[in-house]
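Running this now, will post back.
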Amino acid sequence: MLDRQLFDDGVEIGGHGAVAIEDGKPYFMGAGFEPPDGLSDKAVQLTGPVAETLATQVNPVRPWVAIRGRWRGRGIELTDAEILDRSPVPGESVDRPAVPCDAPSGGWVGHPNPRKEWTDEEKELRSSGVVVSRTSVEIEDGSYVFVFLVSDRAAATAALHQLYDANSICVTLARWTADTQRETMRALIDPSSPWSDVLFGFGQSPDAEGQNHIVAEPLAVTGELERWLRDQPDGLVELHPALWKLVQSIDRL
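Update: finished.
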């Protein structure tokens, strides 16, 4: 169980994630992708009458909830809880990422497999630093356009057009180098960092502009994590906290 004061006492907070029950008491955990297997070291105790009722209602197979309450000491005094039918996946968006290139006059020619293996030629381009990353973006017909983020558009385009139909790929400049992304990810997940005890989810995915960026889910955005984020390249790291401070009428439930 987490032994840390994430918010000032009495602050109203909202959140979404999973609930685990131990000895009849409910504990809040982050979203994740699978139901929790017992308590983690990041679990936060839920208290109050609403929490007692929630403990009798939550489904251990689908234990997902949206909550509202007040931070008290090392736990949350619940004032409201809503049982969800699915996990609130970190970084999930209802918007389809856009292909960050203009569509060709005849339309995109998509690929059926978004996880196509890298060819030896592509691996060489990645090793040289010309290609920073390759992602896939689903288009309207259910197929996928490969988006290559590159450091040298001319060199990458010339090489990749030998491997792909020009109407099936998007080649665009990367906002960040592969080294910058690796160094930033390494710093984020460093087990010696002052936020390692609240970070439980992280990965990489395309943003709304098709740029590969880091998505991380901390239990809450601590002061140390917020200060670190301000020093990172703009847009490279996106945080999705499981708990957040409610301000006036703002309500994410």
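The longest strand covers residues 12-22. More later if anyone needs it.
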